[in-house]
Design a protein that fits this description.
The chain has an 8-stranded mixed sheet. 48% of the residues lie in helices and 12% in strands. It has helices at residues 20-31, 43-62, 71-75, 84-88, 102-115, 131-134, 169-181, 197-213, 219-229, 238-245, 247-250, 253-261, 272-278, 298-322, and strands at residues 12-16, 35-39, 78-81, 93-96, 121-124, 144-149, 158-163, 185-188. It has 2 domains: 12-188, 3-Layer(aba) Sandwich (Rossmann fold), CATH 3.40.50; 198-318, N-(1-d-carboxylethyl)-l-norvaline Dehydrogenase, domain 2, CATH 1.10.1040.10. It is of the alpha/beta class.
Amino acid sequence: MNAASENLKDKKCVVLGAGTMGTEIAFSLAISGFKCTLWARRPASLNEARVRHNAIYDFLVEEQQALEENRSECLSSLEYSADIAEAVRDADFVFEAIVEDEATKKALFSQVETHCRQDTILSSTTSALSPTRLQSELSHPNRFCVAHYIQPAHLMELVEVVAGDRTDELTKQKLFELLRQTGKQAVNCPDVPGFLFARIQHAILREFVSLYKQGLVSPQDCDTLMKNYARRLPAMGPFEHADLSGLDLQMSAGAAAVWADLSVAQSPAETPIGELFGEGKFGMKTGQGFYDWQHRNADDFKRDRDRTVLRLNKVLADRDAKS
């Protein structure tokens, strides 16, 4: 039986890190029928994750995306541990979701390799760090691969899979199959800074903050435009749009003028992002960023975001079922 046809529901999954991403990844595995252990250094973080898991399930019941009678079955698939050796000892798949720092991740994977089996698949949900660098000090680098989930990880279907120079094909196959069995859409991405998703996200933000710095737009205008622009993306990607509009149009003087006028900022420090950072305004976590979050409820914003993602998922699932 090859990896593409194997039923993986009996495999043990472990998520390292009980922050936002780790908590959501663990939930996505559990609600898909997988046993999952969530590890964190602090028991307090694990207690917060338990509360968050119940809150996520509450939300799905309210949105008629889960049944109350299945709550116990889902949440009982989750275990919580502050003991790294115990957590990974019999793991088949490990998903690391700790702080975005290369040295810290490498140190944790070194611990994991001490206690896990030699055939355990190791992955990181880093959004930008090179898998080739992350696997460079592993005893078995062939079984390492990036699996970058997109927030909110329990609702977004996209996962970027990025192999390092020493990742073997079987590791990728097994990871792709696990992701498929948890309802995710895995996409092969190159080992370049930001892979694909973050590169697009930063390119858009760089352009908007450049116009904002010139006093030409407001954050509200840019966010409104982007949310409406994105409505056509599920139906047409950028290469499809280029072919549809015509590559001759893409070579026109008007298009060339746009390309020439795009931002060339080489660091966020050169933009209003750097200015706000210098003022201690980090966004929601400090109550002030581009928006005033002291007078705008961040929890309500996240709930509305999740509701929108859920509804879009349903529309796309209905479309795919008819095609």
